[in-house]
Design brief:
Shape: globular
Strand order of the largest sheet: 19-18-17-16-15-20
Structural class: alpha+beta
Bound molecules: adenosine-5'-diphosphate
Low-confidence stretches: 113-147, 598-602
Number of domains: 5
CATH superfamily of the largest domain: Transferase(Phosphotransferase) domain 1
Helix content: 10-25%
Strand content: 15-25%
CATH class of the largest domain: Mainly Alpha
CATH architecture of the largest domain: Orthogonal Bundle
Distance between the termini: 41 Å
Radius of gyration: 29 Å
Number of strands: 27
Mean pLDDT: 85
Length: 602
């Protein structure tokens, strides 16, 4: 790391020990800022600033701006820096800016790490006002922001960078604010940036600016379950490593914390449920004495104070799979892809419709390209439906980016899934995956299926072979609804050799009656495939025998690795009557409850 000074100047430092503010407590010191540290010189000894609060005064406003801007620039990727700060002093037992009486209270103002320093003048210096005025409640929200957004306008913050790909798109920069002008559909919004530029943005790249929107924080790992949290924290291996995740579909939040402070020195991960008070609005706490108005304030506090936790929250650990998610198509209202913008790379596999290749779109974005063999697909029907499929956008569904239909063969361009098909993934890792990991796979699939169910979309061929795994080990459902366009009658005739009888409920193999509840049956069989690590269901039986057996009430056995409770979830999928089967919403709840067994450790 470079030691070349970025800034060097004599500034005025306030003594850290002294409670009262008197001229004697202010000393001139030479401060040096480098890429790795902020240092000052005390009687020629070098003091490196660490975690204590330093009060420094600059000789002029200009100098102050330069220091603030440079420090911000150097710390903007440092997740340990507080997201809030106090613009005024701690004096006489309270913060002059907000009147809080807890010295370690999290700051009262959002620290706009990515913004510039000219955003808002500081409140008047104490002394200019009477003591009682200084004790007033926190200042109202900044006027400029309100004027910019306009009354009733929705302001969002970008969670990821997005490079506008078409002229009508708007480029997004992580952390910056945008005003929403129009919600064109669930996946694309029209927005305006602070410079007044307007264009389309993907809705899953932004979050509401509401202070309680946790998605903007690195430590918030919404889709991480207990076992995955432990895996990520252990992999990071840092004392005080932590993340906040959603415990279950009931919406409770949990802090997972890694520590070696266990007495015996053995590293462990503790899970603490964030509790809410019954008041309105509710307040949040881990330890009852310390109650906060928001989860982000609670986290800020415990970053500095263990206060009952096994360690303070020292190091925010993010979810690596939180890379920018796929967008529903490459741009708003764009499903036709120009084939000359595609480059073809290695072959990934061969499916019902033809060869699947890895490729790149505009030489940059990795994609999977399915070439549809002529005569394999009822193309016009599919093209009609492709627009609907593109709008199905969810973390656990393989995204359809677009189609090339102006030439033959036609292409389907989808999200690329590095680890390939789930069935092979399971088979190649026999014995290596823990029971919680297996359940995590089922959870991913249940969430993808829940999204299809909520959109009234039926998969019709759910099985481990039709799910794919990406490099972050997220499992996604693929090929939804595609059997309707297969022209091979061996595939869709229930007596045909390729009909997925072993994944079908009685009403499907008897009457071809498909519904979300027939997908639920298939999901039970998929769970069975997962817990047998890729076995063929009813492996010693032919399709016609399975029809007989299932009709007589026979069901797949309990896999060795599935607990009685997990097997009971499978059995709920295999109720003879479709209306008695659980829904995907219920199933994903049951699985996430099973994944979460957070003790109340405080
Ligand atoms: P089928 O039509 O038989 O379900 P697919 O056409 O979906 O099969 O895919 C065939 C094979 O190609 C898969 O088993 C997988 O190995 C590979 N494949 C398909 N889609 C993707 C993708 N999006 N990313 C990576 N590999 C893929």
């Amino acid at each position: 790391m470079s030691l070349t000074p970025i800034l060097e100047e004599t500034l005025i430092k306030r003594s850290q020990q002294k409670k009262r503010t008197s001229p004697l407590n202010y000393k001139e010191r030479v401060f040096v800022l480098t890429k790795s540290k902020l240092t000052y010189y005390e009687l020629r000894a070098e003091v490196v600033h660490d975690s204590t609060t330093l009060y420094i005064f600059a000789p002029s406003n200009e100098s102050r701006s330069i220091w603030v801007q440079n420090i911000k620039e150097e710390i903007k990727h440092n997740v340990q820096i507080a997201a809030k700060f106090h613009p005024q002093f701690w004096q006489e037992g309270e913060w002059l800016c907000c009147g809080q009486v807890d010295k370690l209270a999290p700051g009262c103002e959002g620290y706009n790490l990515f913004g510039d320093v000219s955003r808002k003048p500081l409140p008047p210096v104490p002394g200019d006002e009477s003591a009682s005025a200084a004790r007033r409640p926190p200042p109202p929200p900044p006027q400029e922001a309100q004027e910019e957004a306009g009354p009733g306008q929705e302001v969002v913050i970008a969670l990821y960078d997005f490079e506008g790909l078409e002229p009508h798109d708007l480029t997004l920069k992580t952390g910056e604010e945008y005003v929403i002008l129009e919600k064109c559909d669930v996946n694309w919004y029209k927005a305006r940036n602070t410079h007044g530029d307007e264009g389309y943005i993907p809705s899953n790249y932004v979050t509401e600016k509401e202070s309680d929107s946790l998605e903007q924080f690195v430590w918030f790992c919404k889709n991480v379950n207990r076992s995955k949290a432990e895996e990520l924290l252990r992999k990071e291996g840092k004392e005080g490593g932590f993340m906040v995740r959603v415990s279950s579909n009931t919406g409770t939040y949990t802090v997972s914390l890694y520590t070696k402070n266990t007495g015996d020195g053995v590293a462990t991960v503790r899970h603490y449920q964030i509790k809410e008070t019954h008041g309105s609005p509710p307040q949040f706490f881990l330890a009852e004495k310390y109650v906060f108005g928001s989860i982000s304030e609670l986290i800020e506090y415990h970053k500095h104070n263990a206060a009952g936790l096994v360690s303070r929250l020292r190091h925010a650990v993010g979810d690596q799979s939180r890379g920018a998610p796929p967008t529903a198509g490459f741009s708003y209202d764009k499903w036709e892809i120009n084939p000359s913008e595609l480059t073809f790379m290695k072959e990934l596999g061969c499916g019902q419709f033809g060869v699947v290749r890895l490729g790149k779109w505009r030489a940059q974005h990795k994609v999977a390209i399915k070439t549809v063999r002529e005569g394999a697909m009822s193309e016009d029907d599919f093209i009609e439906e492709a627009k609907i499929m593109m709008n199905l956008s969810h973390r656990n569904l393989v995204q359809l980016y677009g189609v090339c239909t102006q030439q033959r063969p036609i292409y389907l361009v989808t999200e690329f899934m590095e680890m390939g098909c789930l069935l092979n993934y399971l088979r190649q890792r026999r014995g290596a995956l823990g029971a919680l990991e297996l359940l995590g796979i089922c959870h991913d699939v249940s969430l993808g299926m829940q999204h299809l169910e909520q959109n009234g979309f039926i998969h019709r061929d759910l099985a481990a072979r039709n799910c794919l795994v990406n490099s972050s080990l997220v499992v996604k459902v693929s090929d939804f609804g595609m059997t309707r366009y297969v022209l091979d009658d061996q595939y869709w005739s229930s007596s045909g050799a390729k009909f997925p009888v072993k994944w079908s409920p009685p009403e499907v193999f008897n009457f071809c009656k498909y519904s979300s509840k027939s997908d639920v049956w298939s999901f039970g069989v998929l769970m069975w495939e997962v817990f047998t690590e890729g076995k063929m269901p009813y492996e010693h039986n032919q399709n016609h025998e399975v029809v007989m057996m299932v009709t007589q009430g026979h069901r797949l056995y309990r896999p060795k690795r599935a607990s009685a409770h997990i097997y009971s979830i499978m059995q709920m999928c295999w109720m003879e009557r479709a209306d008695e089967r659980a829904s995907f919403t219920e199933i994903s709840h049951m699985i996430s409850d099973e994944l979460e067994d957070d003790g109340h450790e405080l």
